[in-house]
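[step 3/7] fold_predict: job queued, chain A
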Amino acid sequence: MSRRVVITGLGAVSALGIGIPSHLAALREGQGGIGPLSLVPQDQVKTRVAGEVPGYAAEAHFAPKQISMLDRSAQFALIAAAEAMTAAGGATEGVAPEKAGVIFGAAVGCQTLEDGYVRILRDNARPMPFTVPRVMPSSAASQISMAHHIFGPSFSTASACSSASHAMGLAFHMIRGGLMDVAVTGGCEAPITLGMVKSWEALRVLASDTCRPFSKDRSGLVLGEGAAVLVLEERERALARGATILGEIIGFGMSADGADLTAPDAASAGRAIAAALADAGIDAGAVDYVNAHGTGTVLNDKTETAAMKRVLGDRLAQIPVSSTKSMTGHCLGASGGLGAVAALLAMQHGFLPPTLNFREADPECDVDCVPNAPRAGTPEVSLANAFAFGGLNAVLAFRAAG
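[step 4/7] structure written:
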């Protein structure tokens, strides 16, 4: 069995704002969301910038009883899922219980975990009663399934910064293969806490000023937070119920470097790209746009460029390749989902998202990164790359609706 899988709902939360309209406006206008770090005491860290969700207040979205059960990451996931499910308009109605599921990227409840340790180790106090259900990596998947009364396969995928992409790819394959008819999928993360920022500083990969993917003077990544959710459906069912189709997933590829925890491998990343193309039944000539992993670190960007050259060859010179992490920051487990949202919005609305903060060309990153300003374009087929620590790679191929 091989069925076509379409997207009928999108939801997003990030430094670009809460909701798809905010994301679409920012991406089309080239307005990034990276700004001054405010969630962490400035006197305790060197980092000065982050991709924080602007003006976020949990009380504006959840009742106090709900907040007691939800880490910040799960809050973002529920907001994005509610938007996506509303857009999908009754996607789960009439579906057999075992045929609708939630496949979601894992996210540790960073704020909950940190608050718990502070209470225990510094304040000699008891942790909050719901620390365990708030901190568990499958919390968001569980909360989404409960909020939307979804009773089929529901679980989390854990692969660091590829978590959302692995979740979306697995959900795609499960629908294509007949195991499900509908899936809510994506990822979330809220890592901007004192402990996490200091831990990332210890890795020496955080940017000194801002995120400059593919620019020769790039100095590292900027931490971001948020969530992205896609509602996937079997195409014939979506058409029969009159759903608006926002795009189609046509391929998914995976690989593992099997070599190093932090240093990416071009050959392995290239295998994931090639696998996505093969799964979609297309070649390099069909690709019109790539939403790059594009973290802004010296090693990642040149390795990703080399990986794309291995697979896309001479065609790469004609393909726009932008990193929207220059706008949102690196949202870790949510990043693959936000990259997918950016690619889908670009295809749906006829534009190419920019790579902001670009200043100087790097011979080792000789791609058309759509520098500094969005561009008109009509991509029909897009790739979204995710290459995680631990060498866990995932690439999705999308086709525009039509």
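[step 5/7] annotate
The CA atoms of residues 261 and 386 lie 15 Å apart.
Residues 72-88 form the longest helix (17 residues).
exit 0
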